[in-house]
Specification:
Helix 1 crosses helix 3 (about 70-95), helix 2 crosses helix 4 (about 100-125) and helix 3 packs antiparallel against helix 4. By secondary structure, the chain is mainly α. The protein has four helices and no strands. It has helices at about 5-35, 40-65, 70-95, 100-125. The longest helix is centred in the N-terminal third of the chain and has 28 residues, at about 5-35. Helices cover about 80% and strands about 0% of the residues.
Length: about 130
């Protein structure tokens, strides 16, 4: 029998991901306004790694809330947060006269899924101890 989806577990993981992603986006804007990303590509990668770590953390959180269906909950949490961010990004690009970048959307979606899988694997390998 397939376990039912616990949407509260998914929402808690997605909220963690969204919190990290909003902080990363604000930090990236502040960095770009003060220092500028034209100083080198490494700064962009640093922000991207933090964003992926947030996705792994959200996958981990959702997976620990439902260890019997860890992968499903971890992936749903990260991908639902990515859907919100991607919708925001597509809307922003459309309002500035650019079209949506399908390749970037697909690539980032796969990276989010990979990070969420890593988070669920960590949750399954080292489960939280409950007092």
């Amino acid at each position: 029998m397939i376990p039912a989806i616990d949407w509260r577990a998914v929402a808690s993981g997605a909220a963690l991901v969204l919190g990290v992603l909003v902080a990363v986006m604000v930090g990236a804007q502040v960095f770009d306004s003060t220092v500028g990303f034209d100083t080198g590509p490494n700064a962009v990668i640093a922000f991207y790694v933090v964003a992926l770590a947030g996705n792994a953390g959200g996958g981990w959180l959702a997976a620990t809330r439902r260890p019997d269906a860890a992968l499903a909950h971890g992936l749903l949490a990260a991908l639902s947060a990515y859907a919100v961010v991607a919708a925001f990004g597509v809307t922003l690009r459309l309002t500035t006269g650019n079209g949506p970048d399908a390749v970037a959307l697909a690539f980032n979606g796969l990276m989010v899924a990979a990070a969420a899988i890593l988070g669920t694997l960590v949750a399954e390998r080292w489960p939280r101890s409950r007092p």
